[in-house]
Amino acid sequence: MSQPIYVGVDLGGTTIKVGLCDEQGRLIRTFEGPTEAEGGPETVLDNIERYVRQLVADASYAWEQVRGIGAGIPGFLDIANGIVVTSGNLKWTNVPVKEILERKLGKTVHINNDANVAALGEVWSGAGAGYDYVVCLTLGTGVGGGIIINGKIYEGYIGMAGELGHIQVVPDLEGVQCGCGQMGCLETVSSATGIIRMATDAVERGERTALASVEGGLTAKDVFDAAKLGDEVALRIIRRAAHYLGKAMGTIAVVLNPQRFILGGGVSRGGDLLFDGVRESFRKYTPEASSRGVDIVPALLGNDAGMVGAAGLCLKQIR
Ligand code: ZN
């Protein structure tokens, strides 16, 4: 057993997931443990070291076979220098993750933001395998974006490329404020949070909808479930989320002309109800020349995309 292996770390606010990949981006083995973010960067980075060493040992690989280690981290990063500038989830400021982990593990370490890494994972061995120009949108609490060009993440001037959730799509008079400070961002309508907000508003306005009788807090899944049963209010909310997503993708298409869009995250499990609306809106807002041959597909790797993509950071190019 001397084939090279690649380690990917998906660092979340509550859980750290680590995975081993082969050269084709197939997950060989995974391990998961608590982040213990309350212990600060020292504890968290200690945990990463422990989990990674455990994973490699459990899989009976020699440490020498590890060619590199990558980590996907939520927040604003100085990617080139491997520093987490700020991370809301982890409550970190200016943590030199690359330097610390390289010292602990004795291997080259690359970091990148979680949405970019998920996109890289999908292109390495998921829904984007074999495609050179791919844009991924992760529809979760927010809307994350990742742009892959020729098998590499496009990072932009200071690593802020691909912040696709902050494309402004909602007209001024209808827009609400986004976490970024701007009004009417895609994230305010097409994320799980946006869908829940629109549903809660409708219930509070007293609209006739089955959502009014949902016990406990509303979730995006409740809205999809109600829409599938024909609830008019829920259908309107899902159509609105899909409409603005397709519109934003039209903007992306005229700038980047990707071959394939991949939609991941919890909201993407809405199935045809979401995808039909997105495709219709995308065709409506995109010039034929920019939409020709472009397809829109669901992500394949699910929650594994972060680990796979992080492992892929070690390669100069994933194919
Ligand atoms: Zn925003």
Overview of this protein structure:
- This protein has helices spanning 40-58, 97-105, 114-125, 187-190, 192-204, 220-228, 232-256, 272-285, 288-291, 305-312; strands at residues 5-11, 15-21, 27-34, 66-73, 76-78, 83-87, 92-95, 109-113, 133-139, 143-149, 152-153, 260-264, 295-298.
- With 319 residues, it is of the alpha/beta class.
- It has two domains: 5-123 and 304-312, Nucleotidyltransferase, domain 5; 130-299, ATPase, nucleotide binding domain (Nucleotidyltransferase, domain 5, 2-Layer Sandwich).
- Strands 3-2-1-4-8 form a five-stranded mixed β-sheet.
- Strand 9 (133-139) and strand 10 (143-149) form a beta hairpin.
- Helix 6 (220-228) crosses helix 7 (232-256) and helix 7 packs across helix 8 (272-285).
- It is globular and about 60 Å long.
- It starts with a strand and ends in a 7-residue tail after the last helix.
- The site of zinc ion has 6 residues, from loops.
- Residues 166, 178, 180, 182, 185, 187 line the site of zinc ion (ZN).
* List of distinct ligands in this structure: zinc ion
Described by strand count, sense and barrel closure, the largest sheet is:
5 strands, mixed
User: In which order are the strands of the major sheet placed?
Assistant: 3-2-1-4-8
Mean pLDDT: 96
- Quickly give the structural class: alpha/beta
Query: Helical segment tally?
Result: 10
Radius of gyration: 20 Å
Q: Tell me the number of structural domains.
A: 2
Q: How many E-type strands?
A: 13
User: What is the name of the CATH class of the largest domain?
Assistant: Alpha Beta
Low-confidence stretches: none
Distance between the termini: 22 Å
CATH homologous superfamily identity of the largest domain:
ATPase, nucleotide binding domain
* N to C succession of SSEs: EEEHEEEEHEHEEEHHHHEHHEH
